[in-house]
Amino acid sequence: MSRKNAAARVTHLVDALNLKTPVRILDIGANPLIEGEVSYQILLDHGFAEVVGFEPQQDALKTLNAKKSAAETYLPYALGDGTTQTLHLYQSPGFTSVYPANPKSAEYLGFKSGMTETGSEAIKTRKLDPISDIPMVDFLKIDVQGSETAILKYGRKKLSQACAVQAEVRMFPLYQGEPRYGALDNELCRQGFEFLRFAALKHVCLARRFQKRLKRSQFAQAVDGDAFYVRDLRNVETYEDEQLKKLAVIADAIIQSHDLALFALETLLERQNIDMSVIDNYFAEIPEDVLRP
Fold first, then answer.
1. pLDDT tens digits, residue range 167-226?
2. Is 273 buried (19+), middle (13-18) or exposed (0-12) by CB count in 10 A?
3. Beta strands in the chain (DSSP E)
4. Which of 23, 90, 83, 25 shows the shortest CA–CA distance to 54?
5. ∠ Cα 286 19 227 (to 5°)
6. Local structure of residue 77 (DSSP, 8 states)
7. How confident is residue 71, by pLDDT bands cut at 50, 70 and 90?
8. Cα 141 to Cα 39: distance, rounded to the nearest angstrom
9. Residue 275 in contact with residue 269, Cβ under 8 Å?
10. What whole-number distance in Å separates Cα of residue 10 and Cα of residue 249?
11. Cβ neighbour number for residue 74 with a 10 Å cutoff
12. For the chain, what is the total number of helices (H) and then of strands (E)?
């Protein structure tokens, strides 16, 4: 289904659910020079979201502020554990990190050129929870090249009402001393989230001499990607009605999961918060190619 039809479906869903507030999104590592269009773009474009983003790289911050809407606020802070750290700058800005590159990983993965260090600077990191500019969060998107676990650890209060998280996950280490994927997963689970599914997973070709002869589906080494986590649905009774409504919207507009959206709607129906017409109307707008005949 086209983007236009997806936007119409999300608009009708938001209208039917009568949200009390826009979806409150926290975007940590909001660099538009690397990422392009964000996963929550439909919500932002149609006035259904309020975004607070963090981007300490000045060129990226300038770009964000030049094109932002009234619903977007971008802050120049580097988040972490509150200590002063060294920010390592690389030939490819997407590798910028508080962790030094692992030369063997860079060579093995074919990233040697992009991960060539071009400079470094001292940065003072700030803990997430004490920052007054940030409201409580419904959805977190975080991509900070290895610092995800440390940031999450000091953001438990801000994230205590969040329905879902989109986090970069590293399956193979790029940097010296960076936390492994298990540490990130453990921290999210401690905060009440559970893994839902991968949004994307990047693989690289190991036989680089023959890379152009192989389809990407044959590339062997998983490196990193984005994963979606949701607040533990085994405890759905702890969700407030407004959280369930926002989960339904996030599920469709960001996670692109009709299954999860319908789970949230079904729970609202059982609570007599919505009637069946909301679900019938939603089904009528789901693309036919994902429905059984």
1. 999 999 999 999 989 999 999 999 999 999 999 999 999 999 999 999 999 999 999 999
2. middle
3. 23-28, 49-54, 72-75, 78-79, 84-90, 117-126, 139-142, 164-170, 193-204, 221-231
4. 25
5. 60
6. P
7. very high
8. 9
9. yes
10. 7
11. 19
12. 10, 10
pLDDT digits 0-9 by tens, 100-132: 999 999 999 999 999 999 999 999 999 999 999
d(CA 87, CA 184): 20
In this predicted structure, the answer to whether residue 36 has a pLDDT above a threshold of 70 is no
Structural domains of the chain sorted by starting position, each given as residue range(s) with its CATH number in brackets: 3-290 (3.40.50.150)
What separation, in Å, do the N-terminal and C-terminal C-alpha atoms of the chain show? 17
Task: At 54, list the tokens.
Answer: 């963090």
- Concatenated DSSP letters of 154-186: T-TTTTTT--EEEEEEESS--BTTPPPHHHHHH
For the beta carbon of residue 58, count every other beta carbon within 10 angstroms: 9
